[in-house]
Amino acid sequence: MIIRMFGTALALLLAAAPSQSRAQAATAPFSCPDTVQRRLGSLAGVWEVQAVFRRGPTAWDSTSATVTITPELGGCLMREHFVGTRYGSPYEYLALWGANGGAELPIQRTFVHSQHGLLGVSAGRFHGDTLVFQQRNIVRGTTVLEEGRFSGIAQPGFTIVDRRTTDDGATWIVTARFYFRYRGRVP
Q1: Contacts for 128-137 with beta carbons within 8 Å, 24 or more apart?
Q2: Which run of H or of E encompasses 108?
Q3: Residue 25 pLDDT level (bands cut at 50, 70, 90)
């Protein structure tokens, strides 16, 4: 009887061993909440923003806004919500940030705003203290490369310069500048 119980227990143990090794092999060597916190955690909070938008070849529109950046989906992404004005009209944008894996993998960002419905999807990497995102779109039949340069992402503040090119980077036009100042934690 003892030998039969020992044999049954040994058979169950051996049957379970391959499934444990399969589960260990499928487990990622990182967690997305840890990765997002490590790479993007300094963005979390409420920010006061001074924004300057290009209105034409020589004209600019400036506004004040509030941006709230919060971890979402258990910390696997960051959600950015801008509320202000642009060209005298109410203006909001939403951006979702994701980072999954090591520093060699790109950070991704989706972006959409309230004055048109184009959904932007960009990817970027840190170059020193500057996070550079790029995306390509076709606007009125022309390929446009758009770039966002997030410099010095940390408290008490950082800057963003958005620019675009239609000649694959030979010349750039700055389209917006944002000056973020940390106001505090999300209530």
Answers
A1: 129/153, 129/154, 131/107, 133/107, 133/109
A2: strand 107-113
A3: very low
3-state helix, strand, coil in the chain (%, to 5): 20, 55, 25
Q: CA separation (Å) from 140 to 49, 143, 148?
A: 31, 9, 21
Q: Which of 6-15, 19-28, 152-161 has the lowest mean pLDDT?
A: 6-15
User: Half-sphere exposure of 87 toward its Cβ, with a 13 Å CA cutoff?
Assistant: 7
Residue 148 forms beta bridges with which residues? 133, 162
Q: Which amino acid is at 106?
A: P
Task: Tell me the backbone φ, ψ of residue 75, rounded to 5 degrees.
Answer: 90, 5
- For 72, half-sphere exposure in the C-beta direction (CA atoms, 13 angstrom radius) is 12
- Cα separation, 99 vs 109, whole angstroms: 9
